[in-house]
Amino acid sequence: AAMRKSRIKRTKTVCTYCGVGCSFEVWTKDRHILKIEPVVEAPVNGVSTCIKGKFGWDYVNSEERLTRPLIRKGDKFVESSWDEALDLIASKLGSIKEQYGPNSIGYIASSKCSNEENFIFQKFARAVMGSNNVDNCSRYCQSPATAGLMRTVGLGGDSGTIVDIAKSDLIIIIGANPAESHPVLATRVKRAHKLHGQKLIVADLRRNEMAERSDLHLHPKPGTDLIWLSAVTKYIIDQGWVDREFINNRVNGYDEYVKSLDMYTLEYASEVTGLTKEELIKTANMIHEASSTCVLWAMGVTQHLGGTDTSTAICNLLLVTGNFGRPGTGAYPLRGHNNVQGACDFGTMPSYFPGYEKVTDPDVRARYEKAWNVSLPAEPGYDNHQMVDGIQEGKLKAMYLFGEEMAFVDSNSNFVEEMFGKLEFFVVQDVFFSRTAQFADVILPAAPSLEKDGTFTNTEKRIQRFHKVFEPLGESKPDWMIIQEVANRMGANWNYTHPSELMAEAASLAPLFAGVSYERLEGWNSQVWPVGPDGKGTLILYEDRFAFPDGKARLYPVAWTEPFKPDDTSYDLHLNNGRILEHFHEGNMTYKSEGITHKVPGAWVEVSPELAAERGLKNGGLVRLTSPYGAVKIRVLVTENVKGNELYLPMHTQNVDEAVNRLTSSYYDLVTHTPNYKEMKVRMEVLEED
Ligand code: SF4
């Protein structure tokens, strides 16, 4: 028994699913995962986990893992050696760059990969390939929130920590479903609400678990959040409930902003949003009575034509009520992927170097040029939408994508797939043969987090270390090593031997991470950025100053953009979509984890009892949903969680015929190009069973 016990290994890791950033010990014996053990030292979750963190790891040993490079030969993929695959990539990317210029290639980074891997990838795109065409999947989710924050308070991240949220007097959750999407964070809120008298307002089309628990559930018409937020803000101003001292000392643009709210009367807001005046006044009253208010939001806000403006309206409301810079206050866009914050932070964005410094800023560029001994492109690159459109326009000829399922998660996937088919050359680097990989010319086998070292940054900007548990399966390799090998074949001479060297380089270049180091991240230690040179992090942002040169926040007037509506009125139902607890995004990991997929094997569409009665729909019946962009076949779940003509479709499935992005459009947020996934109109037909 002693022998057997000695072979059991315990390693600290960080969850690879949602942005909460739970960490725990993984107990292993050889390649077997024995259990996931949360420990009190874990800074975010302590002894909690959710089903995904606890049971979602079998995918690492899945027989479907890619273990050798694959090269397309006609319609088939054949296994190759690493040398052959890498040589082919180098020669193809080299010739395409030479023939069409550096901006004819696009680079898609990964929110599932580490900070260091994102750092080396943007360095590869910029310093080796000479292009800022590098982006990540935050373009599909929280880019509008980042933009709204940068307009008003200056930094693209949560204002405080997850522990702080629970200290708030009033939490407002808008267009988010943390009980399923961010379960461990939701547990903290539920506890504070139940035990400590914290108040909760939820604005959501769907009666999700948090809405059910809330003190006030607002159900505005789809896409009208900006209007009710502005009306509530105006009402607070009209009542004289603003924080005068805070505004006078710490905020610019108040008078102009107040003027911009003139039209947002309770009458107007009530008419457009469908909320009653009483609900609007009650919301304002609850904010007025609370000594601290914070707002949590997610895709229900951001995935609209006006996603950035609504995110801005949230910040405006918090600013006039003095709700920044204290525990329990502030703005909390909830990050989806475990490392979507880190992917943005470490520079896989077309306009930003690591740490959100603009590529257009000559001083910043000079710093990087000196360190890297190259000259760097000064113009922002294409974001991922501009890349897809660029293929259609003949400007983009090749792509290099790692750890993303873009053919499935981008909106209007029929169009995206068609464009991928037109690429002259496409490299996909992944753990699995993803649905995007079928369009590739070369597929490189990557290693998941349990097979490498690195750091992830969670939604509260906390950088945490994860450690290698197993050797990479077969011939797969950590993403950072693969990227280094490609870079070296393209003329670089890099010799990184461990991710800690990449972090050290990032810290030396980006002031936001000045004192981040692997030494300081040992064990259960973590660092929350901005991190000063002394290694001290920042748990609450904006305590003394906002992140602008004069230290003052900026109220930013915004206008409402009406949600997209197809001209054809036969698309008579509103289709909402989102996550469920058991699965994660495209499902590439959870559907390959036995403990999870047996519980929830597929997707469905939620239909209200009213609509079911009107159309003669039964639980489990099959329907076809059709939008102007495509169609899906899916089974019905009748539930009171949705109302009237509003439908809800979970976004995770392994079956492309029921994937929500067959239906979504190519329209997007006007500022950031985040698709308007939440503005879809469809029609529904009942199908006969075969
Ligand atoms: Fe992982 Fe999120 Fe669940 Fe925590 S709450 S275990 S980070 S999926």
Describe the structure.
This is Formate dehydrogenase major subunit. By secondary structure, this protein is of the alpha/beta class. It contains 25 helices and 28 strands. It has a seven-stranded mixed β-sheet with strand order 5-4-18-17-16-6-7, with helices on both faces. Strands 24-26-25-28-23-27 form a six-stranded mixed β-sheet. The chain has a five-stranded parallel β-sheet with strand order 10-9-8-12-13. Strand 19 (454-457) and strand 20 (462-466) form a beta hairpin. The site of iron/sulfur cluster (SF4) has 14 residues, from helix 2 and helix 8.
Give the topology, please.
Layout: H1 2-6, E1 8-14, E2 23-29, E3 32-37, H2 51-55, E4 70-73, E5 76-79, H3 82-100, E6 105-108, H4 115-128, E7 134-135, H5 143-152, H6 162-165, E8 170-174, H7 178-181, H8 183-195, E9 199-203, H9 209-213, E10 216-218, H10 225-238, H11 244-250, E11 251-252, H12 254-260, H13 266-273, H14 277-289, E12 293-297, H15 299-302, H16 307-320, E13 330-333, H17 340-345, E14 352-353, E15 357-358, H18 362-372, H19 384-392, E16 398-402, H20 406-409, H21 413-420, E17 425-430, E18 442-445, E19 454-457, E20 462-466, H22 479-489, H23 499-509, E21 527-528, E22 553-554, E23 573-578, H24 594-597, E24 605-607, H25 609-615, E25 622-627, E26 630-638, E27 646-650, E28 680-686
Parallel strand pairs: 6-7, 6-16, 8-9, 8-12, 9-10, 11-22, 12-13, 16-17, 17-18, 23-27, 24-26
Antiparallel strand pairs: 1-2, 2-3, 4-5, 4-18, 14-15, 19-20, 20-21, 23-28, 25-26, 25-28
Helix pairs in contact: 3-22, 4-22, 4-23, 5-16, 10-13, 10-14, 10-16
The structure holds iron/sulfur cluster (SF4).
